Amino acid sequence: MHTRDGQLLYSLCDYFKCGKVNQRLNKNALDYRVKKYSDIVEKIIPFFENYPIQGEKLKDFEDFKKVAELMQKGAHLTELGLLDIKKIKSGMNTGRVIS
């Protein structure tokens, strides 16, 4: 998100009581990052299930949920599982092929 709109990201930190806002190097952009798995599955995912994202970003959220489910099953601990997660990640955002 552009730095001029950063207050929204800081508001997310306050609302969810988790995550951090980081500025991208050499860019006027900010990212909201949540690293704690329990915060993702207990706060972030339920919020967006209750208040669904509209438009193309919904597909990215669905892929994000798939990765969280794979991690819950321990897939990230195996080479095959990591390959599955990387494949999903590569198809998100700008990597998504529009059908």
- Indicate the CATH topology of the largest domain: Endonuclease I-creI
Number of domains: 2
Low-confidence stretches: none
Given the C-alpha coordinates, what overall shape results?
Answer: globular
Terminal residue distance: 26 Å
How many helices in DSSP terms? 4
Summary tags:
single chain; 99 residues; mainly alpha; Endonuclease I-creI; two-stranded antiparallel ribbon
If you had to describe this structure to a student in words, what would you say it looks like?
The structure is a single chain. With 99 residues, the chain is mainly α. The chain folds into 2 domains: 1-35, no CATH class; 36-99, Homing endonucleases (Endonuclease I-creI, Roll), CATH 3.10.28.10. The protein is built from 4 helices and 2 strands; from the N terminus they run H-E-E-H-H-H. The protein has helices spanning 6-16, 37-50, 57-72, 79-90; strands spanning 20-23, 30-33. A two-stranded antiparallel ribbon has the order 1-2. A hairpin with a 6-residue loop joins strand 1 (20-23) and strand 2 (30-33). The chain is globular. The model has no long low-confidence stretch (mean pLDDT 93).
Offer a concise description of the structure.
The protein has helices at residues 6-16, 37-50, 57-72, 79-90; strands at residues 20-23, 30-33. The chain is mainly alpha-helical.
Can you lay out the helices and strands and say which pair or pack?
Layout: H1 6-16, E1 20-23, E2 30-33, H2 37-50, H3 57-72, H4 79-90
Antiparallel strand pairs: 1-2
